[in-house]
Task: inverse folding
């Protein structure tokens, strides 16, 4: 029967308890030399949501990350939030994190005061870990919503200066730059504005099989324009087709091309748009649409010939009058 080394077991347990105590204790007073570029950040930094697209009780995830750390042996993160707006539902260290160390006490989640705290430590005389990666993944649930149009609820996701720290194998604190997070939940009732619709060629000069380029100015100064769609029909809306309009950064307009159509085709089209809050806008007002009819190519030539003929006749008449003089 294998004998248990009681002395070794007791020593191991003591080391684990010491490491765990270090993780959830006040940060050490000894500070190492500054390490250029080391940051502890909340990612994404800005977490902005809208009632129209993200209802109450929805969840979102942020990561506490460390960048360019050298010789990390022990770490702790404490993140503050507003418990009247958010509740923390889960906090863990990702399995693929390079900083998922052997000693990982159960995270502390306080949804009354409004903070979540967790950490991890290596064990024994081993070197620390270098690099960048996720320290903790934290899930929040939205519990309060604004009730007045245009109103927003917000809070900072703040890394605690005292209880967020990085330690080297000598249990010396390593300086870092904190990058806090931000949360906002808005009731946005603005809609995209659709103006300045133009087409090339113009409606009265679209020839057979000719592609028609449509340009439109769409703006939304609250949340920004998410997408713009051109919808057209060639059978008076019995059927229709949709074209995704692309934003031209040079002109500042959204653009799409309607394919060439057969002679005599009546084309009707309209523009629809969504912003990032999910608000919808359409320039289809009371059933009025943009229209054009495909004309035969010779029509334009015929018009030109007619104009030239008219001009020629006018010149002839004018000249003939010069030669007709009254008799005495």
Result:
């Amino acid at each position: 029967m294998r004998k248990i080394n009681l002395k070794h077991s007791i020593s191991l347990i003591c080391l684990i308890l010491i490491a765990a105590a270090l993780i959830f204790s006040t940060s050490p007073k000894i500070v190492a030399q500054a390490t250029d570029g080391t940051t502890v950040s909340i990612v994404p930094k800005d977490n902005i949501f809208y009632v129209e697209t993200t209802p109450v009780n929805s969840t979102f995830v942020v990561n506490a990350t460390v960048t360019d750390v050298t010789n990390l042996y022990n770490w702790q993160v404490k993140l503050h939030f507003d418990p009247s707006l958010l509740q923390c539902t889960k906090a863990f260290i990702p399995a693929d994190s390079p900083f998922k160390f052997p000693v990982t006490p159960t995270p502390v989640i306080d949804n009354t005061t409004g903070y979540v705290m967790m950490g991890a430590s290596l064990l024994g005389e081993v070197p620390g870990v270098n690099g960048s990666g996720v320290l903790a993944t934290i899930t929040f649930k939205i519990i309060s919503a604004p009730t007045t149009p245009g109103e927003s609820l917000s809070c900072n996701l703040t890394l605690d200066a005292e209880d967020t720290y990085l330690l080297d194998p000598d249990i010396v604190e390593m300086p870092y730059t904190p990058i806090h997070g931000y949360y906002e939940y808005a009731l946005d009732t603005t809609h995209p504005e659709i103006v300045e619709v133009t087409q090339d060629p113009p409606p009265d000069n679209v020839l057979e099989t000719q592609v028609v380029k449509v340009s439109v100015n769409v703006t939304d100064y609250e949340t920004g324009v998410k997408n713009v769609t051109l919808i057209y029909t060639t059978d008076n809306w019995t059927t229709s087709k949709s074209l995704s309009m692309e934003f031209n950064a040079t002109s500042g307009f959204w653009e799409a091309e309607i394919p060439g159509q057969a002679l005599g085709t009546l084309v009707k089209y309209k523009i629809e748009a969504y912003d990032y809050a999910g608000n919808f806008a359409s320039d289809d007002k009371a059933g009025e649409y943009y229209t054009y009819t495909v004309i035969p190519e010779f029509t334009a030539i015929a018009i030109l010939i007619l104009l030239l003929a008219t001009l020629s006749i006018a010149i002839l008449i004018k000249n003939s009058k010069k030669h007709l003089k009254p008799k005495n």
User: Anything to note?
Assistant: The chain has two domains: 27-186, 193-301. Helices lie at 6-23, 297-323.
